[in-house]
Write a structure and sequence with these properties.
Layout (H helix, E strand, L loop, with lengths): L5 E6 L1 E2 L5 H8 L5 E6 L1 E2 L12 E3 L6 H12 L7 H13 L2 E7 L8 H6 L4 E5 L11 H13 L2 E4 L2 H9 L7 E3 L23 E5 L8 H11 L7 E5 L5 H11 L5 E5 L3 H10 L2 E4 L14 H8 L4 E4 L4 H4 L7 E3 L4 H12 L2 H18 L2 H15 L2 H4 L2
Parallel strand pairs: 1-3, 1-6, 2-4, 3-5, 6-7, 7-8, 8-9, 10-11, 10-13, 11-12, 13-14, 14-15
Length: 390
């Protein structure tokens, strides 16, 4: 049987718990064989992967010093050493890779020497923060323009990000929108009835960082409780903002109505979604330029028909059409968020309309199988005809 051509995929840490979307993309490939390259293997029980298809590269002993000098003193991205370049070319040749896919955009400048030396195409993915943080620093911007010139294709998970990378200097013809999508069979639609006792459950699932707007969710929820006193808020996830969020909840006196689950695995997330009546995600752009592509947890919620209230931010409006598949409010508008939540909870016809619209939005634009076919077609279009047909 002919073997599939190999696509090498670099992810610095394979994989962080919040990177399920990357795992879904790589493991969904059927017509090409992914060979993962990483510097650190993480969460192998959560993200199993065949050891023969995984290469863990050594880290230079002076990596920390190199990063410090380049980031703190020179103010520019660092690049791989010559011996690392030789190792990369040796390993890519060993696995007969025809394309290299680098996740994520902000690490791509490290590989400029490889992009110049390796004779095959390189693809770079942008997912959100990697198109914003440090983007305006002159030396970072110059290195990124070099990446754009050397890369065969730049993949962006939203139209909004695609606009950003063009603004940063990438030729529009090199940019492709490649959604990180949802396996629809794993997230089936389910109807939700209004609770007879008014015990509405509102949920947000994300990493606890500034751009997710969790403080806005809590402030809005405290307002919503005045009209729906039996409502509860479930916060799924963990992260550096948790102590501040706990302090905010305590100051508002709503601790009895808010529950933290901590980080939980996919099956448990599904159960929490099934028990909920509304999903919120008030994303915002941080002072450092960190922002969303399209939040994966929001897409999962929408696939199940869970009504969504979110913000006009990043790629969110590409998934959520205001009034049809969810409600959208401005960034950093806690009163507006509270009003939208109350509107959904108080209007049965609206909830049903948003539920059906949410599922249709995911089916039409965020189906994993369709997005994988697009990605494989792109890979093959970059390969010599003899390689793509192996």
């Amino acid at each position: 049987m002919p073997k599939n051509p190999v696509v090498a995929c670099y992810i610095a840490d394979f994989l962080k718990k919040e990177q399920l979307h990357v795992y879904r993309q790589i493991t969904g490939l059927k017509e090409v064989t992914p060979q993962v390259f990483t510097h650190r293997r993480e969460n192998p029980l959560y993200f199993p992967f065949h050891i023969r298809r995984l290469t863990v590269l050594p880290k230079p002993r002076t990596r920390w010093l190199r990063r410090f000098i380049h980031r703190q003193i020179l103010g520019e991205p660092w690049q791989i050493y010559r011996w690392e370049l030789r190792r990369w070319i040796l390993e890519l040749t060993r696995v007969e890779a025809k394309v290299l896919h680098i996740y994520f955009g902000h690490v791509a400048p490290q590989f400029i020497p490889l992009m110049k030396a390796w004779p095959h195409p390189v693809v770079v993915s942008f997912h959100g923060a990697d198109a914003g943080i440090d983007a305006t620093k002159p030396r970072h911007a110059a290195r990124m323009r070099e990446v754009f010139a050397l890369a065969a294709r730049i993949l962006c998970r939203s139209e909004s990000l695609a606009t950003d990378v063009v603004r940063l200097g990438c030729l529009p013809e090199k940019v492709c929108v490649q959604r990180t999508a949802i396996p629809l069979d794993d997230w089936p639609f389910q109807g939700r009835a209004a609770p007879a006792d008014g015990a509405w459950t509102i949920v947000q699932s994300c990493r606890f960082i500034d751009k997710k707007g969790l403080d806005l969710t809590i402030a809005a929820f405290a307002d919503v409780l005045r009209r729906f006193p039996n409502a509860s808020l479930t916060l799924i996830g963990d992260g550096p903002m948790k102590p501040a969020l706990e302090a905010q909840i305590a100051s508002l006196g709503i601790g009895a109505r808010v529950r933290f689950t901590g980080f939980i695995y996919e099956d448990a997330v599904k159960r929490e979604m099934a028990a909920a009546h509304l999903f919120v995600h008030p994303s915002r752009t941080t002072e450092e330029g960190d922002r969303e592509g399209v939040p994966n947890a929001m897409l999962e919620a929408m696939a199940t028909g869970l009504p969504v209230v979110a913000t006009r931010h990043g790629g969110i409006p590409e998934a959520v059409t205001d009034g049809a598949s969810g409600l959208l409010v401005p960034e950093n508008d806690a009163p507006g968020l509270a009003a939208a939540i109350a509107r959904v909870l108080g209007d049965e016809e609206l909830r049903h309309r948003l539920a059906g619209g949410a599922r249709r939005s995911i089916e039409d634009g965020f189906d994993r199988a369709a997005q994988i076919r697009r990605l494989e077609a792109l890979y093959k279009s970059l390969m010599p005809a003899s390689s793509a047909a192996i």
